[in-house]
Amino acid sequence: MTFSIRPERDEEDRAFIERLNPRLTEVINAPTHSDAEVEAFQAAFTATAWEQSAGRSATFLAVDEANELLGYVSVREGSDEVLSEPCAYIALLAVERMHEGKGVAKALIQKAEEWALEMGYARVALDVFGSNTRAFEFYKRAGFQVETVRVIKKL
Question: 7, 83, 100, 127: which has the highest count of C-beta atoms within 10 A?
Fold first, then answer.
């Protein structure tokens, strides 16, 4: 399959990104939160992709030769908490189910890393829900390493 990566540019792109929210929430098992809470969190977090300051965030989409949208990555400035300095932060990454395993997510990660280097960041970070084992394995293959694990208890 042939595809390219381009910047997010219009409401059609944003609608596509929002349509992928169920792909993100279906892999979340958050035992201290209801499904409704997780879905509301995801919708609100996705909306932040357009609230970031210009120049310190970017959203890229994978598009095939027929102009079909395949997936996206949203990257922004984050914080390296060990060094207390800015780093790139991959906030969102999703690929249409039918296009998984075809190199789309890998290409999107590579584009996010290129953006991070262009912006002068020395590191890129991301968060993954503990229940998303497939993502953990993908990110390990992409060279990411676990540094912190957050645990939570409902009182």
Answer: 100
